[in-house]
Amino acid sequence: MAGFxxxxxxxxxxxxxxxxxxFLMVGGFGLCGIPENLIKKVYEMNVxxxxxxxxxxxxxxxxxxxxxxxxQIKKMxxxxxxxxxxxxxxxxxxxxxxxxxxxxxxxxxxxxxGAGIPAFYTATGYGTLVAEGKDVKMFNGRxxxxxHAFPKADFALVKAWKADTYGNLIFNKTAANFNPMIxxxxxxxxxxxxxxxxxxxxxxxxIDVPGIYIKRLIKGTFEKRIEQRTIKK
Length: 233
Description:
This protein is an alpha/beta fold. It has a single domain, classed as 3-Layer(aba) Sandwich (Glutaconate Coenzyme A-transferase). The chain has helices at residues 11-14, 36-45, 65-69, 85-92, 103-115, 179-183, and strands at 23-26, 50-53, 73-78, 97-100, 119-122, 136-139, 142-148, 153-164, 169-170, 186-197, 216-219. The strands form two sheets. Strands 1, 2, 3, 4, 8, 9, 10 and 11 form an eight-stranded mixed beta sheet that branches. Strand 8 (153-164) and strand 9 (169-170) form a beta hairpin. The protein is globular and about 50 Å long. It starts with 10 loop residues before the first helix and ends in a 14-residue tail after the last strand. The mean pLDDT is 95.
């Protein structure tokens, strides 16, 4: 990796510097668009005490769910956790701390981190447990709750469809989900992609995240598992 070239040759290099007790943001929605190989590498490194902000915790045996097997996650910040029995078990036993966050608020806390916005007001959660202990102000006759942006993640892990060697990213349809905002919110953002091309080969109008946000880039192969497969009899 030299100059503007963000490509690394191995997952060891991609996650160099990852240590215990770090804060990670991880892209994906369910199992759609998750950086599955980067997650697997985190598992293999067996780092502990992680705080992870992601829409959900994967499923048993795949995605972020594999990190629960070794109890690598100390705290999960998510909006949905309904597909993971091990996650439920660890939360109810007190082994895993959970901060449930409304999905739009979670997305905005990530986007704000990347945009340098320290906090914002949202109507979401007013009058519920979500708003307890938080500042409330009236705007146009409606109450809004103050939410603080996340700090920059020590590592932000995302998955894209295509990139050039400069790190400019294009996401494929729904696989974009949380990935673009997370890509801007990391001290070290690592993107794994299906295809890497040379600079100038991507249509500039189609680039979702400019390469200035990307620190490391690696080409992977993906299982793309379907979370709940339903077929006709």
